[in-house]
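Researcher: Let's do a round of design. I'm pasting the structure tokens now; please hold your answer until I've finished.
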């Protein structure tokens, strides 16, 4: 076995688990605090849907918004890159090293060590600890940028010269070797470490230095050392960062490939258990068929992403992060359907294999096993039905194209299949080629670009640089105060969707910033000197700081202010938030300890609570939950609040945490009796302040996930008053009889009897009318033509048409030139099966004739209708249909 140029026995080869632990142990010995991975799905950061780099969880420290508790940190972070700047999705499975979900090994320094230690320790770990061949390693350094007035990073190059030969140190351009968080913010030069895994014979022909950053699958970047020393301003200029930061990221899967002597990430033990299971389930052998191999790699990669996302409480959905996860899942299903012959759900059967491989490092996987499997299976079943429907729709589109003499499906049709029905474009293309037809790809691309432009315009945000009024950190006092004197630290102007507003950061604030499902506070900011008052209409959290949103800026931002929240709205929100805790506890008591919170929404008006449970709640269960929660409301249990409690101590208390949330070493605990939860939201002083809880709905939002919606306090009173008013009105309608239910039952029974009699009478009249029309039929060639004109009852017209079809003894066409209930013209065409077999099509007939009434419509070959605006054209439309039948 050859491991990066070093002979190594199979028995001594490091496993993925051992490699991950060796990295953590190495940096722990260098004085780094080892932190757990943050959730892969990002909450409370409007700029990110997913963690796409190890540094994401440290953004607030890097931006200077929060002090670092530990100046040296290391971890293994689960990441996801599928959209935006890091869009690798369509390449996943095609090559040996692209992935959606991946692990990033990283070490950080916040104002502690810098380039020398970062480079020296990277070299020590790779060469001295892991025994990688130094002759196969290359380092890139930033060559400089005249545009930014920056020279070459000679400091980093000089450090590398102590480890590498000059021809192994390569200058890199701004694109590859200058890392930026975004259009603005912290940035700096970086130094990438690449490894050449090609056979020696290839290395002798072409030096590795010539292959770096040339997309060769065996000459790859494994570690990026970022030296953050600048801040990019909105005008593009750079200024030094007050505290320099080291941010490194090493691709775990690529490192495993190098150490295990493989030429593909998918051949390492990170993926081989999954690929082996996929091969067993599909009855195929990996490595025998190129297309099947791609499909197996796609499924192996994607099932990891999907499982981790669900474990982090992000379910597949139709918007934002949920849409991305659904898109990944459907890509995997489509590959399995097309190339592995999987016509039934099967990916969910891979979850146990994934847990065996990664469950020890990421305990959220085994804990959420049943939920993960149920959600994946339901999504698979749903999309397999979509594929079947899409294939039928594509068959219809191909038939219509052939009938019109074309061998091409329009880009608009393909885009509708893709965008509206979720049918993959490459599957459309494959089916067309199998049927000797073509796709108007340029038309599809135009439709796709138009959609992207619409989305980009809707999401575009323009922001000026932050204007710093004074230095300082924000203090949140909203747990104890509803108003406070304060000063503005900084502000900026933002433009989004043609709307301008201001973001304001205060040094002290009572405003709760939206987080954890609780909406942000609103209120006012008043200049204490001038009395000028501006409205704060919302408060958002960005990078750990409360950002106050206002439509106007105070005339004097340097003044002293009073910040006052809307206390009534806050109190209503607190009632609803505390109610979610009581409902959570009650649900677990009634349904079982498998119930776990999966999300929530708390506003002044309403609360939503999502939880794991695998069947619909019965009315009796809902009533039990409601009564348990309200019993604790009546008990007026005082809030027991612990701030800055060590998380280990909180867990010992039995505090419940929400999976998918990132908690620090110290947490806030809210306790009402036996209800103990980690929570940063606002809550009532005692449960009696809630007043009353009323569950207004219970529903399913995904496989294994239920949602209850509820109201509290005065809103319950309003609902009960409305219900009482409704009951009084019903009683009055029934002459205030004592037995309202009995009277309603009798009324319904009488109505059903009358309806049945009316339907029988109606059917008899329709039958008589159809018989009369058939007697009056005229022949257009061999076709008996039945005509109905002038009637204003659309349902009657349709029923007469089908009664004519049932009674017809000859090839028959029914033509209705009538009106709808609003007096607008309506065309109806019914053709018996023998007329359709002769080549006539009701849908084509009405579409052609509808032009005369300035309308449109369609239907099936045997029955179709069209509406229009111009009743004066009805006779012309009728004659058009007659003439088409004659032809």
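Researcher: That's everything. Go ahead.
Model: Designed sequence:
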């Amino acid at each position: 076995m050859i491991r990066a140029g070093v002979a190594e026995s199979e028995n001594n080869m490091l496993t993925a688990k051992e490699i991950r632990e060796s990295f953590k142990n190495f940096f722990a010995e260098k004085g780094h605090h080892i932190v757990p991975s943050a959730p892969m799905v990002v909450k409370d950061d409007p700029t990110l849907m997913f963690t796409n780099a190890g540094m994401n969880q440290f953004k607030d420290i890097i931006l200077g918004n929060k002090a670092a508790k530990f100046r040296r940190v290391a971890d293994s972070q689960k990441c996801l890159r599928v959209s935006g700047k890091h869009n690798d999705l369509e390449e996943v499975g095609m090559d040996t090293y692209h992935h959606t979900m991946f692990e990033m090994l990283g070490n950080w320094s916040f104002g502690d060590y810098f380039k020398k230690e970062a480079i020296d320790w990277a070299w020590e770990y790779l060469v001295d600890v892991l025994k990688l061949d130094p002759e196969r390693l290359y380092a890139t350094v930033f060559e400089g940028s005249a545009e930014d007035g920056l020279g070459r990073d000679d400091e980093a190059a000089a450090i590398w010269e102590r480890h590498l030969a000059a021809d192994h140190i390569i200058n890199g351009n701004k694109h590859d070797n200058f890392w930026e968080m975004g259009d603005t913010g912290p940035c700096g030069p970086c130094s990438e470490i690449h490894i050449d895994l090609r056979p020696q014979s290839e290395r002798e022909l072409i030096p590795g230095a010539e292959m770096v950053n040339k997309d060769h699958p065996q000459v790859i970047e494994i570690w990026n050392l970022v030296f953050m020393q600048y801040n990019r301003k909105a005008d593009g200029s750079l200024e030094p960062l007050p505290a320099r930061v080291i941010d490194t990221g090493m691709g775990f899967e690529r490192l495993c490939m190098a150490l295990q002597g493989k030429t593909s990430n998918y051949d390492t033990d990170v993926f081989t258990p999954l690929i082996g299971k996929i091969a067993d389930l599909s009855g195929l052998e990996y490595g025998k068929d190129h297309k099947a191999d791609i499909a197996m790699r796609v499924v192996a990669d994607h099932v990891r992403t999907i499982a981790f996302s669900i474990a982090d409480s992000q379910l597949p959905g139709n918007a934002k992060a949920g849409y991305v996860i659904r898109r990944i899942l459907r890509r995997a299903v489509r590959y399995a359907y097309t190339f592995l012959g999987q016509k039934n759900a099967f990916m969910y059967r891979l979850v146990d294999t994934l847990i065996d491989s990664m469950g020890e490092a990421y305990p959220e996987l085994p804990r959420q096993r049943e939920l993960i499997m149920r959600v994946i299976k339901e999504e698979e079943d749903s999309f397999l039905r979509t594929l079947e429907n899409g294939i039928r729709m594509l068959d219809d589109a191909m038939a219509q194209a052939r009938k019109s003499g074309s061998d091409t499906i329009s880009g608009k049709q393909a885009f509708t299949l893709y965008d509206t029905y979720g049918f993959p474009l490459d599957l459309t293309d494959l089916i067309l080629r199998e049927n000797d037809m073509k796709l108007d790809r340029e038309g599809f691309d135009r439709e796709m670009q138009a959609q992207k432009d619409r989305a980009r315009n809707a999401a575009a945000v323009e922001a000026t640089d932050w204007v710093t009024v004074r230095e300082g950190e924000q203090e949140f006092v909203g747990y104890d105060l509803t108003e406070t004197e304060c000063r503005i630290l900084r502000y900026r102007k933002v433009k989004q969707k043609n709307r301008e507003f201001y973001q304001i950061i205060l040094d002290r604030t009572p405003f709760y910033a939206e987080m954890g499902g609780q909406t942000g506070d609103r209120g006012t900011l008043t200049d204490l000197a001038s009395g000028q008052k501006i409205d704060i209409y919302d408060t958002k959290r960005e990078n750990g700081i409360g950002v106050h949103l206002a439509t106007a800026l105070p005339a004097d931002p340097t003044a002293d202010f009073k910040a006052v929240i809307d206390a009534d709205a806050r109190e209503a929100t607190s009632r609803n938030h505390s109610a979610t805790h009581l409902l959570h506890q009650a649900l677990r008591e009634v349904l079982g300890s498998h119930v776990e919170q999966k999300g929530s929404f708390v506003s002044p008006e309403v609360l939503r609570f999502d939880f794991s449970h695998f069947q619909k709640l019965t009315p009796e269960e809902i009533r039990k939950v409601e009564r348990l929660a309200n019993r604790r409301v009546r008990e007026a249990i005082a809030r027991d609040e612990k701030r800055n409690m060590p998380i280990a101590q909180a867990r010992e208390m039995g505090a419940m945490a929400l999976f998918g949330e990132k908690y620090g070493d110290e947490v806030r605990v809210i306790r009402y009796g036996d209800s103990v939860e980690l929570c940063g939201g606002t809550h009532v002083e005692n449960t009696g302040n809630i007043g009353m809880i009323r569950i207004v709905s219970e529903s399913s939002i995904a496989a294994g996930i239920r949602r209850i919606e509820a109201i509290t306090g005065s809103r319950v009173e309003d609902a009960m008053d409305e219900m009482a008013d409704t009951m009084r009105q019903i009683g009055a309608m029934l002459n205030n009889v004592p037995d309202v239910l009995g009277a309603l039952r009798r009324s319904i029974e009488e109505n059903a009897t009358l309806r049945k009699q009316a339907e029988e009478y109606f059917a008899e009249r329709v039958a008589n009318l159809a018989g009369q029309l058939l007697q009056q039929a005229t022949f257009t060639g061999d076709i008996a033509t039945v005509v109905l004109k002038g009637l204003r009852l659309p349902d009657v017209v349709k029923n007469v048409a089908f009664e004519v079809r049932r009674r017809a003894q000859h090839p028959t066409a029914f033509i209705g030139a009538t009106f709808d209930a609003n007096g607008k013209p309506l065309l109806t065409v019914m053709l018996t099966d023998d007329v359709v077999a002769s080549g006539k099509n009701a849908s084509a007939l009405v579409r052609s004739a509808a032009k005369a009434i300035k309308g449109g419509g369609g239907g099936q070959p045997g029955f179709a209708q069209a509406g229009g605006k111009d009743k004066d054209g009805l006779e012309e439309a009728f004659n058009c249909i007659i003439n088409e039948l004659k032809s």
